[in-house]
Every structure is written in C-alpha cells, then in structure tokens.
Batch of 2 targets.
Target 1
Amino acid sequence: MAIARRGVLVFALCSATLSGSRPTAAQSPASGFGHPPTAEELRAIDIEVTPDGKGLAPGSSSASAGKSVYTRRCETCHGPTGKEGPQDVLVGGQGSLATSTPQKTVGSYWPYATTLWDYIRRAMPFEHPGTLTADEVYGATAYVLYMNGIVGENDVLDQTTLPNVKMPNRNGFTSDPRPDVPLKKK
Amino acid sequence: MMAMHNRSRRRFLGLGAAWSAVLVACRPKTVAPVAEPRALGAAVSSYGSRSPYEKTTRFFNQNTKVPLEEASSRTPLHDTYGIITPSSLHFERHHSGVPVIDPATHTLTIHGLVDRPLVFTVNELRRMPSVSRIYFLECSGNSGSEWRGGSTDSDVQRVHGLTSCSEWTGVPVAALLRECGIQASATWLLAEGADAGKHARSIPIKKAMDDALVAYAQNGEPIRPEQGYPLRLFLPGWEGNTNVKWLRRLKALDQPAMTREETSKYTDLMPDGTARQFTFDMEPKSIITRPSGGDTVAKGALHQITGIAWSGRGTIAKVEVTTDGGATWNTAELQSPVLPRAHTRFRWSWGWNGGETIIASRCTDETGYTQPRLAELIQVRGMNSQYHNNGIQAWKIAADGKITNGNRA
C-alpha cells in the first residue's frame, strides 16, 4: 500500500504542474521514489569530460611516453601510423573536408581534444573498454595528437594542458539551419 | 540470409499476382482441395512464435570490416504491414554490442545541476505514472547510400530499413527531472548507456522537458535487449542514436559534453568543408515499400502501391504518389490513426499498362514542409553529408515489370 500511495503522490505532482500551479523545482516535494547516490556510486559512473576539461582524471603523459600504449593497445585496429586501419583512420585528411573524398580523422575533423580523451577512456580499446589507466589514456591521446602534428613529442598532457590543445577543425561546425531546402516548388 | 529474403519476396509476389488477377479478371480459379485435418493441432504454449512458413528477417551485411557488435540490421519494410514494426524485426544499431543487463541490479542515476540527485531502480520506474505513445525511430544514417548514387539493385530494406515504429511505454523525463529539482542553469542533459562503450549523447534540456521518455516497454512487453533493455531514452522524432539505450545516467550540464558521437560522427559535412552539428529532428519522409526494388509487377494487373510516411516534426498531412515519373501526383489514402512522429501507412491503387516508368511517393507534414527530391538536397548539401537523407525514393519499372532503384534514373 505504501508503494501505491507514493505513485499517487507523484501523479498528483505532475497534474499540479500541468494545471498551472507550477511549483519551482526546489519546492517540489519528494515522492519517495529514488534514493540519493552515495559518493562511491557516483564516482563509478560520472565519467564524461566537457571541452573545458571538467571531468578529466588526475594523471599525465606525452606522445613519447604514450607511444608504447598505442603500439600495444591501439595499433592492431588503427595501423602503425594511424592511417592504415582497418578501423577508423585517426591521422591525416587535413585539407580534405571540402573535396569529393573527405577524410574525417582526429586531426582533420575532431573539434575538441577532450573528446578524444573521453572516448578513449569510455570506449577503447574496442574489445576491452575501460581497462586503460588515466596515464595510459593521456599517453594514447598525446600520441594520436602527435601523429597529427597537433602537439609536440614531449608535450605533457594533463588536466590543465589538454583542454588548451587547439584542434585544427575547432571552428569547422555550424548549427542546424534546416529546413534548408525550399518548402514548395509549385 | 539473402536466400530467405528472396524466398519471402517471391512468396509475396505470388500472392500479389493472385490478388490482382482476381480483382481485374474476376475469373474463378481452380484451387486444389485442402484435406480436412484428421489430427489435432498443437497445444497451448507459454510464449508464441510465428508460423514456420514465415521467414522474413532483418538484413545485415556480414562481409564488411565492421565488427557486427558495431553494426546495424535493417527492418524488412516490404514484408511488414500497418504501422507497428514487430519488436523482433525492429532495426538495430549498436556501437559496442548488446549487453546482458539484470533489471534487479540496473539503475538510472540523475545528477549534475539538480537539487536532489537520485538513483531510481527499474522497479521504481515501472511503478511511477507512465504514458504509452506510438513513435517511429529512425537512424540518421538511414538511406545514406543514396547521397553518392546508391546501387540500382538495392531494395527498400537495404536502403531504408533503418526506420521502425513501436508503441513505447515509460516515464516522462520531465517528471523525473522535477523530482530531482532540475536547476535553472541546466541547459543540456548528458544521456549515457551501460553498454561496453558507454554510448553518450548531449540533449538540450528543452527536449527533455517536452516529450522525452525513459522507456521500459515496447509493444506491450519489456523492451528487447537490442532496443535497450531494461531502460532507454526515447526522444520522439529525433535521430536514432540520441535515444540512448541501456540508459544508466542522465546528468544535467550547462554545456554539451561534445562526445565522440556528436562531434566526429552524426554531424553533416557540407560542400564547403564545414559540418552541421546537432541536426536532431528527422525531416518528413515517405517511401513506397510495395512494390519496390527487387519486385516484378505484372502487366495489366491492378497493383496496390503502399508505403509509409513519417515526420520528426509532427503529423503527416498528405502523401502523394506518382506513377509517371513525377509528371502527375495523386493523393494517396492515409490509414488512420495518423499520429504525430509515427509511421503513417498510405495506399494507392494502380493499374500498370506496361512500358517503362518511375513510381515514387512524397509527403507533406503539418508544418507545410514537402519532402524534396534527392537532387534538391544534394544541390544544397552536396554528396558528403552522409546523414539525414529524406529525399524522394524513386523506383524504376522496366518494360518487363522488373523494379530497380530509380534514384539516379
């Protein structure tokens, strides 16, 4: 019965909002559903990194130190120089985006270096995601950026320096103008 | 796989020809007498399955370098009816495989710019006030092959099979965000899955507060694993990959996270080398699903042209069908109910007199937007944009009745 009553309470809350007596978020009474996460629960899943660098884990590495991470964990799928595949090509393609054979790589297309760090930590290596240490993620990130000529071989990437890496295609994106095709011909 | 596909297609054509012949000629047919059954049929069973005579399947290409855990499978649109896609035939697109998730241990955490971060169990979500809505779901890469010319022998399943339509049941995201005390500074919501690659997309808070759902059921049963069991985000009318499956977390942010999927993928490259970012809604689109590529139509017979139309911006207002390559357009019959952001079934009856021609459909939605020709889209967006092709699909009928992809004809 307690369970059913909680459901009714939430429903009443939704109805009140719809009917116009709109409580501000802070005043909304709790329905009893859900529990506050513990710090540990949050730490396990709170992984995203935003372009300003929020969410980057402590640690550091450089291309020279990260090369071995790339060789061991990335090269099989992305090739010795990041250009060979068989999976996504990571290197090259700068200047190709406006041609009939555009090559979207980290160097030619990705607007934020933080995205690379986030994605490697989140999803790579493809078959064993989440197994790299923070230093290894910084190292693989640095090496891919180095192969693209974006950072120097011994530049150290960490929570402070990574968000400041300027990606070549940083200003290459525009907002959605659709509908962009004439509405009516006749 | 393809053998089955062809077989089911032949079976359909056989039925179609028989139906047409009856309508046109009204000739009595000689039918072999069916033996009266002398044995009992099967007993009741605990979980149903389709007739052993029905073989249609999703299509996926096994001969690419892409791992199948990162691949897509396509709905057999030519072999489905009405507007609801059977859950077992709903298209798939995974970025790191289908996880096996125990609903007893899975949770949804809402945190970030909220007054009360909360963790909801699946059971709690199933007990909260819910809604059920019928919505299409389309991958933004659907029909993408056509930007660069496509293939004359491709069929409706391979070209357009990344769209499906289901009844989804779940809890409005707005109610959950209010429950957590969403703060005024929150402008984006990061949605993240519990799959191996932790698929993640940023969603404007406006959409989240409008019609977004945390869905746990599809077509009356818990969502299938391929569709996000036990929880998925559902954003009506928006490109497929924003509808994050195996949803484990919603975090309120004051900026988009700029995840890999919303920067390096699912952005539309324009001829000048710039790319459009955050092209969320799927524009109005229609396709003739029968007859379509791979079919052969009979001369002198009456054919029911049928297909589906949908708009990520609302309700379909009109579907027109041409059978003369666009010289004239006929208003098709729409099957009710016509629902916002759902597949809409249309039909048009047509007698083919022989001779080469092109058939196609185009739709107009409640906003007044009319589905453009592919050439018009290419004129504005070039041939590199990869995603969001909602252009008219032309099917070319040859003098012998064989139908091929007519987009470049």
Target 2
Amino acid sequence: MTCSDIQRALPEVLDGGANGVAAEFETHLKSCPDCSDLVSDLKLITSEARQLAATEEPAPRVWLRIAAELRAEGLISDATIPEPAFARTSAAPRPVLLPASPRRRWSAWWLAPVAAGLVAAGSYVVRHKPAPQVAQQQAPPTPTTAPAPVTTPVTGTPAASSASVQAPAPQRLGRKSTPAKDLLASTAEPQVEPAPSAEDQQFLSVVSTRAPSMRATYENQLNAVNADIRETQAYVKRNPGDADARQHLMDAYQQKALLYQIALDRIQ
Amino acid sequence: MASLRRANLHRASIQRACAQHTVVVTLVLATGLASAALAETRKEYRFTVGANANVSVETQYGAISVKPGSANQVVVTATIKSDSGNVEVDQHQSGNRIEIASHLLQGADQQTGQVDYELLIPPDATLNLRSSTGPLSAERLHGDLTMEGSDAVMNVRNVENGHVHVRTMRGTVTLADVSNGHIEISSISGDIHLKSVTGPMVQASSGSGRIFYDGDFGSGGQYKFTTHRGDIEALVPVNVSADFRAHSVLGRVQHDFPLKPMHSRFPAEAGRSFFGTTGEAASEVVLRSFSGRIRLKQH
C-alpha cells in the first residue's frame, strides 16, 4: 500500500469501514511516519469535531468576552455594542468566514479557523464603529500642514486621555524606522511589547514542532504583523473617523491570517 | 657552476612538486563534481491530457520552472538533488488532472529533501505551484496560474488571458508582460515588481515589502496596490489614461505630472493624498499605504 492508497482509503477507514484493507493500512502506518502523523491528526480532529457539532453557536461568554476586549481597547462603547449572537434571531447575520484555500490540508486544521477568526475579528473591529465616529468621518479634514496623529484632538473615546502622552516607543524587531513611524510612536501611548496571545503561542508551538528551523523566521514575521496591527489600532483609536485607517487595520488582520496559512501550508 | 646546477635542480624539483599538486587538486575537484552529479537523480514523467488540463506541483524544497509544451502532453522532469533516499516523487493522474508532489521521508531537510522540477505543459493548462524555498517561474502560458511559497522568489513572464494568484511570505514577486487576467498578489514582507502588467483587475498587497509598477495601467482595468509600511512607486508613460487615488495615512505622497481634479468623498490632504484624472480615465488606480511613501512618476 502506498501513501496515495492510504490517502484514498482514509475517509473510509476513519468512518470505521474498509475492514478489508485494515491490516495493510496498519502495516503502512508503522513504516511511514508521515501517514502515521496524518492519521493521528485526523483522528484527533474527528473526535474534536464531534464535540463541536453539539453546539451551533459559540457560548454566550465568548461573545461577551470579545465585546469586553473591544470595549477595553476603546473600539466600541456600551451604547454601540452589537447584540450578541446568542440574542439574535435566526435571520440575523452571522460572522462570515473567508473562503478557505481550495487545496485540502490535512494537518493542523485547528489553526485554519483561528486564521479565519482573525479576519472575522478584524472585520468586526473595522465595521462596528460607534455612530459619532461615522459623523466624524464626514467632517472637514484636519489642517494639512500638520500630520493628523499629532494635531487631531480625540474626544469622546477612551483613548482621549492617552493621546497626548509623550513617550518613546521601544525598538521593534526587524522594523525600519521612518519619520512617520517616529511621529506615530512619539504621539502614541507607551507601547509595551505584549505577550503573545494563546493562538500565537499555539501557532509557534506547531511551527517549532514541525519546522524548527523556521521558527525564528515565522516568529519575526508574526511579531512584525502584530506590531502593524497594534500600530494601526492605536491610530484608529485616536482617529476613529479615518475610514482608510480602519481598512488598513482590516488589511493587517488579513496579513496575519495569510501568515498563518502560509506557515501551516509549509509545515504539512 | 656547481651552485648554478644545484639551483636548477632545486627549481625543477619545485616545478615537479607544483605539477603533482595541481594534478591532485584537479583530481579531487573532478571527483567531487562527478560524485555531486552522480548524487542527482533525474526522473521524467509524461502524461497525456486533453484541453484545459489542471497541473499541480508541490515541493517543500526546490525550484519549479514551467514552460509551454505540446497541446496534449505534460512532461515533468524531477531532479532529486541528493541520493540520501529521504525524498520521493509522488505523481498521480486522474483524467485531466495531474498532481506531482515531493514526499519527504523522515530525516529529510533542505539539502536532502530538495527536488527541482521542470515542466512542459499545454499553454492553456491551469497551473498550481507550491514551494517553500523556490524559485518558482512560469512563462508563455495562458491558463490560470496559482503560486504559493514562503521564501520562494517568483517570476511570471509573458502570460495572458489567465488569472494569476500569488501568495508569499517574503519572497520577491516579479510579473512581466502579463495581460488580460485577474491578478492578485499577496505578500507579507516581500517586494512586488510589476512590469507591463495589465488586466481588468490587478491587486497587489504587501505588509512591509515595496510595490513597484512600471506600465500604462491598460485601458479599463482596476488597479489596487496596498502596503502597510512598504513604499509604492508607479512609473507611467505620459499618455496614461486613468483615475488616480492615492493616500498614505502617515507617509508622504508625491506625483510629478498634472492631474485634472476629480470628485472624491475624501478631500485631498496635501502631502498625504491626491486624486486626479489623466487622459480619458480609462482605468482606476488606487494606491494606499499606512506609513509607506507613494510616488507616481512619469517615464
């Protein structure tokens, strides 16, 4: 039995059928670590998926936690928190996931929804803005002689109190310094390199296991993308009416999703 | 006289020693080269296909190069670069669909797992290429083309009437003489070079990479270039016909030729954005960056 035969027989075997080839199947698995890993991954996914199938919606606490985090970042206010998914009618729109890559990927599937979730979260942040911010978007522009991040007073958002804080930003790994960036850094609140999120840690852990030589590369890229996200978030917080900046925030989330996809494709 | 003879003998012995050393070094080098060549294994696969074939090649480590061949045959030459036996070439045909993949076995690394592929395919075939290290190249084709890789340098030349989709982490992407297809390039930190690239939809985005466009933006397409930190530069001829919208949230924006003002719901911000038309406004060009510089220059 070859690896191709194994892949063809996999669905049947995982469903508990294919008794006729079970012995050959097991023999091949003993001699082929790739197929063995693949089968164990799929078995894990299958068992996890069965548990997931029991719930159609994420638990209410998930939505509440997302709302709390967005509120803490000042991106939404209490009055504008969208009704949580669990309270909507069945006809209400739900988060839309980006279409997945047309190629089938067998292992590390758990990160694909995470990547899609990043985009969905980005989309959520970008699109769900408070009404006063939309009004600001149509207001006349700030004076053109001075950059907006410096001169635009931000009011009515939780970021207002921190917008005028002057503190140097720490040097970021592998990032070139530009006047604009210095300008942004000098007007932003003190930036502390946050600890990687649980998803990022899990992602790096998978990369370490499957492609240890590439871990540093992916970690650098991930840090850079995360820094872009934070940088744009900080700007949007101070300039909530800037539709283009919000689009850049969405783009930055998409970049992160792309990094996840590329890394996971590579380490199959 | 005797000392002269001794000196001559000494010189001759030095010359002999040098010659012997040269021969030894040459032999060692030749042996090394020969063994390296012997370590390579070339395999050729031929598949007969109909119109609109679909060809996929996937290798973790190695180059993929694709050129047009005969209309009904796909020829794949795989060069396994090491004799370690750590990699196999899997190939599968299902009707018009052909899949080629490097299958890494335990212990394979970038050196022992490298397989380079050269393909000759029907020009209208749909092509999917994937390699982490690359380089990837395709030329003189007119089917749809997808390229993916993390570090791979990617080159696409003389492609028309097909969609071109490229995804990379940090490899440089170069497209030249590509026309009449949907083009979508996504990169995290790699540079993107587009020369004479036109089509109904051309999109390129990079986080920290630079986007450089040299061409006339066609006649009737939509062009969107986006970066976060990378610069965007477009070099266009005098007779370009397009609506231009450029905006950098924190970077500088420049253009060096007259643009007729055009309506925009966002007022132009001097130094940070411009909107304007030239010629008959045949194409729409949107250049966006968060903190990168944007320049629109005439040839």
